[in-house]
Amino acid sequence: MKNNLLLYGKWSTGQPDQARGDHDRWRELELVGSNFGQSSGRIVNSLAGPDDTNGEASTCGRILIFLSWVLVVLTMPFSLLVCFKVVQEYERAVIFRLGRLMQGGAKGPGIFFILPCIDAYARVDLRTRTYDVPPQEVSKKVLTKDSVTVSVDAVVYYRVSNATVSIANVENAHHSTRLLAQTTLRNTMGTRHLHEILSERMTISGSMQLSLDEATEAWGIKVERVEIKDVRLPVQLQRAMAAEAEAAREARAKVIAAEGEQKASRALREASEVIGDSPAALQLRYLQTLNTISAEKNSTIVFPLPIDILTYFMKSKEAFAANT
């Protein structure tokens, strides 16, 4: 009303253009206000719908819980046999009430209470499990980066770290972990050469453990250790590698023998030079050799013969040949 009087005053005072502009602006503001009211009403209605649904569900849930308590009281003490459950020290119980996960997480170890007909629970074993990746099947054979077919035998040690997550987030945590271990083993071996697989088992095991642990964390699984027990090669490849290794050893043996002969020839040349400078050294070496032979227990009899006598006969033979 106040706005209408203000516009009428502007018309009456000779300001029709300004009054017309003010009227148009007020009209736009009214349209925006009406649209905003309709939008807010739709938003409120949409928000009120789920609240009503949740309210009805909570009301039904309270009624069912009340009826369950009535059933427990009426059938007491026989109902206590059904309501009280026990889990071991290495187990946890995940309880669902009317299909929803109860607050407080997993129960146990010890005694816990459930309501009949509306509560369901699942036992989860927290002990470490061992999974042996079998190498006998053809599907478990791995193709390395250098196109060599090998059969790998690995062991995976894992346990459930979060019982609630292992039940709520995955259908079968143990089966999923085993399938993932097989796939991870195949992928890891496919990026390695054969000599790396044979010589770097600890490094490969560590990388597999980190990859599996990171992937299974969302399932409530903790991969503690991965070990590669054995790497089996085809028979033909084993024979080829054995022949290659034998040839390499023979080549190294020949090189070592040649180096020994070379060093021995150099030593003999130096010894001959020393003996040539001192003839008495040859006699001493001769006597030393006789001493070595006589130290052994044998029936060999050695008569020492001076080398000078032989040289005398050789000189006499040369002189006789010259005269004739």
TrEMBL record:
Record bears the keyword Transmembrane: yes
Species: Anopheles darlingi (Mosquito)
Name of a matching Pfam family: Band_7
Gene3D superfamilies: 6.10.250.2090, Band 7 domain (3.30.479.30)
UniProt keyword terms in alphabetical order: Membrane, Transmembrane, Transmembrane helix
Protein name: Band 7 protein
Protein localization: Membrane
Membrane topology, as annotated: Single-pass membrane protein
GO annotations of cellular component type: plasma membrane
Domain Band: 82-245
InterPro entries, sorted: Band-7_stomatin-like, Band_7, Band_7/SPFH_dom_sf, Band_7/stomatin-like_CS, Stomatin_HflK_fam
Domain of life: Eukaryota
PANTHER family registered for this protein in UniProt: BAND 7 PROTEIN-RELATED, PODOCIN
Transmembrane segments: 63-87
Similarity comment text for this entry: Belongs to the band 7/mec-2 family.
